[in-house]
Amino acid sequence: MNIDKDLVAASATPLVLAILNEGESYGYAILKRVAELSGGELQWTDGMLYPLLHRLERNSLVEAFWGRSETGRRRKYYRLTRAGAEHLDRQRRQWQVVDQAMRGICRMAVDPAAQLI
Amino acid sequence: MTNKATLEERIGQWRQYLRRRQAVHSADVEELEDHLRSQIDALRGAGLDEDEAFLVAVKRLGDLNALAREFAIEYSERLWKQLVVSPGSGASSLTKPRDAVVAVGLAIAAAVAIKIPELFGLRFTEPSADTSFYLHNLSLFALPFLAVFFALKRGLHKSGWYWLAVPFAAAGLLVNLLPFKPGSHTGALAAIHLPIALWLMVCYAYTGGRWRRHEQRMNYVRFSGEWFIYYTLIALGGGILMGLTNFIFEAIGLDAERALIGWVLPCGAMGAVIIGAWLVEHKQSVIENMAPVLTWLFTPLFTALLLIFVVAMIWTGNAIKVEREVLIGFDLLLVVVLGLLLYAISARDSQAPPGRFDILQLLLVTCALIVDGLALWAMAARISEFGFSPNRTAALGLNLLLLVNLAWSAVLYARFLGRRAPFTRLERWQTAYMPVFAVWAWFVTALFPVIFNYR
């Protein structure tokens, strides 16, 4: 399934924030987690994650720090800030509303019989 | 083993490629490289060989151009080079503290120097201003310090310092000891020509004594153009500063004008000479030169102007009116055309084949020659009638010098366009001609007063 580009873009921020809500992480691991969560359906161009992370950092939703990988390479980690957590909370509620509305309308569209009963 | 090396090599190349992007700083490259390596490791764990893993990982990271564009959108300020104020973390820092200290120190020295004569009763401000003293000596307050700045920066050898001191000492003696009559024309001519003569002497310090080399002299030409632009910009800012200061002090009933004209104007004007030079040096390899940009902008406009002028002259049959100021006007025209030519040359890749802009340049020079030729022809008949006053002789001499320069430039340009001579010939002609201007400027400063009996 090919997910629409606009939808991917719109869901990117809450998704990244939600993953960081599970604990601090770094770019590659975040992408792996995205693939895991979506069952491999949600595919990003890997590089594009980084400008997004930097934007979140600039808006103080996440903070970055340098650490080491297990092989000793320098690695940039990100963690959620308080402002980021609040932002995530708001986004989550918005997505729930969208999700609910979609579920309602889709059930009717998929199953016309449901409407008749 | 060889495989490992090739993988590192390929990652190295990839890193180099990404690092060339202005919006992507080295920390970002490092972060992306970590991603690339993690990805490669994971793919190899899944059974791909090194080559395949590298290719897939790079492919997944996406088009680097698109990525760099994303970074540029995110960090649009990185596309603007910040020089003096905040040398950015990732950008190469050019601020050499020593240079800055030397430049500011010399600028202050120049600013102090222009106030020293006041201690000896030579007033800068009205009333009773010693205008002629300051006009004659103006270049001597700033240019020696500029020469020192470059001599220090280039590490001029000891005998070079002596050579450098000679023209400045000579200039100081000349303009102050020659018995100019009050309001004399030769005095005014000396005041105009001395800064040019000394500016060309600064070339010696700028090139670190290697002024005989053509490339070095061309560098000085480039520097001069940039310096002029920086100085103009600083002067503009200074003007605004002075205007506003005057305005707000007036609002509380204080008159700041005396302090501004007596102190801020002269000290600022002198100090800005050094500061401008330092800024030009500072940005040299970082920012594109401005003078060639202006040249590129104005060459077509001036060419159009001259073409229309020639056509209008033919159409109306109006000859050039021979008046006193006409010659100076045409001198200025030739100076501008020479400037346009010089800065077009200075920025041109001498290996590049002839292009459209070269044809335009030749057209510009040819038009200027025709126009100036017509002006000289109109004047030739009456020049003896007017007599050879100092001003007219100086203007005529300069005109002839410029005419010779441009005429031969046109010939060389035409040969280059016909692919019969390399472009470097034109470059060399221009740099070879620089001493001619220096000699002329010294000649007018030093010998005109004697020839014309200090009139």
Number of helical segments with 4 or more residues of chain B: 17
Helix content of chain A: 55-70%
Helix-strand makeup class of chain B:
mainly alpha
The helix content of chain B, as a percent range, equals: over 70%
Indicate the CATH architecture of chain A: Orthogonal Bundle
Please state the average pLDDT score of chain A: 87
Mean pLDDT of chain B: 87
Shape of chain A: globular
Broad shape of chain B: globular
Task: Kindly provide the radius of gyration of chain A, computed on alpha-carbon positions and rounded to a whole number of angstroms.
Answer: 17 Å
Instruction: Determine the N-to-C terminus distance of chain B.
Output: 87 Å
Q: Tell me the Rg of chain B in angstroms.
A: 28 Å
Mind describing the biggest β-sheet of chain A?
Answer: 3 strands, antiparallel
Largest interface, and how many residues on either side?
A: A-B, 17 and 22 residues
The helix-strand sequence of chain A is: HEHHEEHH
Bin the strand percentage of chain A: 5-15%
Main β-sheet description of chain B: none
**Under CATH, the topology of chain A is which?**
Arc Repressor Mutant, subunit A
What is the first-to-last residue Cα distance of chain A? 32 Å
Write the CATH homologous superfamily of chain A: Winged helix-like DNA-binding domain superfamily/Winged helix DNA-binding domain
